[in-house]
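Hi, does anyone understand the following?
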Amino acid sequence: MLIEAVLGDITTQGVDVVVNAANSSLLGGGGVDGAIHAAAGPELLAACRELRRTTLPDGLSVGDAVATPGFRLPARWVVHTVGPNRHRGQTDPVLLASCFARPLELAVGLSASSVAFPAVSAGVYGWAVDDVARVAVGTVRAWQEGTTAPGSGPEGVALVRFVLFSSAALDAFRAELDRA
């Protein structure tokens, strides 16, 4: 499995799965969430409203993930995950790691071979990008080795791409990827 980091716009990635740094309501927001909702079109909001009406009436929990179609995105699927918000006291790196492991587990179930992640919880959720990079890369590598949970592993996922919003974020992720 190839793991890479690029500077770019996650909404333009030609991958099977784009991971959305969503809020628990799943009804759109700012940053990556707002950009993905805008690019995917109103069908994405309708699909998220249906999830809230049926299986997720209380919203999506921090660290969990759920999939919807990608609609107008190049990606076939959007996997929404809710990152921990340091400003609300959510400082457990295990919750952050789950935001990278759960989407990979769902990607396997979707028969996806490529997944693009943003820097979940960096930015307005208050996590330092260096910490996010360390947790994200470590989690993906552990998942690749099949050590994150029984039955997990990289079945069929050939590419994990971190799509970063700034040069500083790109540098942080590349530094982690360069570590042995």
